[in-house]
Task: structure prediction
Amino acid sequence: MKVLLINTSETAGGAAIAASRLCDSLNRHGVQAKLLVRDKHTDRVTTCRIPSDGLHGILLKGAFLWERFRVWWANRFHREGLFDVDLGVGGASVVSTPEFREADIIHLHWVNQGFLSLSELRRVLASGKTVVWTMHDLWPATSICHYVRDCTYFHTHCHDCPQLRYPSAHDLSWKVFDQKAATYSEGRITFVGCSRWIADQARQSRLLCGFDITSIPNTYDHHLFCPGSKEKARLHFTLPKRLRLLLFVCQKVTDPRKGLDYLFTALRSPRLHAWQGQLAVVVVGQMAEEIAERIVQPIYTMDYISDPADMAELYRAVDLFVTPSLEDNLPNTIMEAMACGTPCVGFNVGGIPEMIDHEVNGYLARYRDAEDLALGIDKVLGAPNYSELSAAAAHKAATCWNEEHVISQYISLYEHLLPNLD
Result:
């Protein structure tokens, strides 16, 4: 069995990390898997890059810029929200690659930002190959957005898109919705949600009516992400030994969906006054230094950490991981933190309740309730059974997201879709 996974990037972003890990895991379990990307960052032999030199590179860059221009035009030349939506209007030719031709299964992941166009997806479906699409967000089930917030138009037909600056009855979302519907009618796709929540959301989409939708979680490297010495980890990052440390990680800390304002409010709550002089905050992500003035506790900022081993050490170094995200699928960060034995606090929203078991391995705060988020931070840090919370977090990761559990589900799915393959 030969599987070709397709993702825009090899390592940048949660979907890229998940796809790369899945590719490696499949190969370890006897499946011949390759990952086809536009942006390659390592020398991994199983990762292939589409041609990007000369004319190919010009066309790819042009496709990306043309898509952004259309969004910019629709927003009447405002930059706000320029990268919040994707139209699927241009991109690369994956069907022409030798990796595509030799594959039995085409497994799509996150293919936006000018990589895979709807017209190219038509050619993928027209090839007759079996297609699986793992949904790392809701873009496959909506017209142009990745997360719907409170919008339900995708249940029937997208229009008046709230993520466009000037929505209307026949705006870009309305047009692309029809284009997607026509594209999907060209063949069969089996959709996989990383969380049960996103699979349930997708089942409500008119675009995916009649398609098979299942749920299989991501996996992680249990050799890297595992409990270890907190003292050694803090020494590695020159972090204080005696303070309690709270960690927040975000690729872009200014993204409103990540809920940083709620974290700022929670950290100022009277519930955390008792921790004055005992608590510090570690923030990892782009522009992390710009938010330092909004946090009252001592703060340690770090740029984006690309080395998984360093990231695992950081999870071990802290006492608590907080994710105030307002809408999320199955965050790799929670999975990795729990695998390292670090309890987590987050809002009861999206796929997060599938990960954090309330007051067992962390705390689930009421949605958009900063005061309850502060209570969760206080309860976990002050828990007399903190070691039990830590052990339960590691156990949950090892039980639910271990490689054997996840890969067996994907292999079973592949074999179901290709029952006569030798």
